[in-house]
Specification:
Helix content is about 80%, strand content about 0%. It contains 3 helices and no strands. The longest helix has 19 residues. One of its GO terms (cellular component) is 1,3-beta-D-glucan synthase complex.
Length: about 60
């Protein structure tokens, strides 16, 4: 018994597109650049994969 949410493929694709678009905007921000200047190599790899790297790897 669900709450009547629309779980069609089109709705899922729209949601994924919305999240990916927001992630792209986040990567373009100055904050990410400043964080990247402070991280060591392994933290930067982790940060990359948890932001835009996830979408690159799933394409």
């Amino acid at each position: 018994v669900g709450k009547g949410r629309d779980v069609g493929l089109n709705q899922i694709a729209l949601f994924e597109g919305k999240v990916a678009g927001g992630n792209g905007e986040q990567i373009l921000s100055r904050d990410v650049y400043r964080l990247g200047q402070q991280f060591d190599f392994f933290r930067m790899l982790s940060f990359f994969y948890t932001t835009v790297g996830y979408y690159f790897c799933t394409m």
